[in-house]
Amino acid sequence: MKFLQLASLFGAALAVPAADLDARQTCTTPKLRKDWAKATTAEKTAYLNAAVCVTKKPSRLGLVNATVQDDFAYTHAILYNQIHNFAAFLPWHRYYVMVYEKALRDCGYTGTAMYWNWVNDWAAPSKAAVWHNVTGFGGNGVETNPNDIRKRVIDGPFKNWRPQFWHSSVQPHALSRDWSTAQNGDPELRGAFYSPTAMVPVNAKTVFDEFRAALEDGPHAAVHGGVGAADDNRGLGDMGFNNASPSDPLFFLHHTQVDRLWWLWQQQNPSARTMEYNGNSPSLPDGSNGPPVSLNDKLPMGGLAAEGVVRDYMDVKSAKLCYKY
Ligand SMILES: [Cu+2]
């Protein structure tokens, strides 16, 4: 704004038109990220075509027999302890989803990341639009190989997709999902853990790192486990308790929703919360608390993209992000 005032004062004396500077340095037209359930068939098809393309393009990191999708899973797996269970979880995954959105664009997509609003689907998550076999990501996995405990996804656009990584090791396998079933008191796909009622105490947190912990450990973990692991101890699907969970393209709809919930929390008090960042870094090897986090902390992205700085990924309308929900 200050610049525009100067521009009007000095008028023609300026060498660079104000509009050009705005486009480079600020976010003037944030792109809207949509709810998968409300997107049109054409929008879903465009997204899925690009997402399939990402699972077919050769690795840019030079990983053997791997694709760009594997690059994402690998990067998430090797950085795992630097990006989970403390404050960086939220800005790191915000940046990471943006890098994936760029990968979709490299595959011809012109839209934005989309989200699975699982809060709306909590009562019957298996009926969610994201599982559709044509306009979604395919459904639950089934046992197709008695020698493999994983359950293979056999419908939808990713039925032939073979991720390279399982946890942090090379272990080529068919994309797998193993929805938790409504048994033994465990609700279908763990829906009760991300119902509107379950979200109340999460959204009521008033300190950033308490909100982050409640969101990460509660609904975020429930969706990973609900989609990817009927058995917590083994993890039978890619989305389950698996460092390489981004092998399932659905990961990015899940994490865009996590990102949106953070944004909604920030919007409850934007002036205080947009740049609110606190808590401790991971514990040190001797077991003592890590140092307090800072907005100047780095966000490593492996070879996927340039290293980021937390402060650039706090505000969705920052120059590096520029989107809205
Ligand atoms: Cu993660």
Automatic annotation (TrEMBL):
This is Monooxygenase. Gene3D superfamilies: Di-copper center containing domain from catechol oxidase. The keyword Transcription does not apply. It comes from the Eukaryota. Residues 274-293 are annotated as: Disordered. InterPro entries: Di-copper_centre_dom_sf, Tyrosinase/Hemocyanin, Tyrosinase_Cu-bd. Residues 274-283 have a biased composition (Polar residues). GO terms for molecular function: metal ion binding; monooxygenase activity. Pfam families: Tyrosinase (PF00264). Residues 1-15 form the signal peptide. Keywords: Copper, Metal-binding, Monooxygenase, Oxidoreductase, Signal.
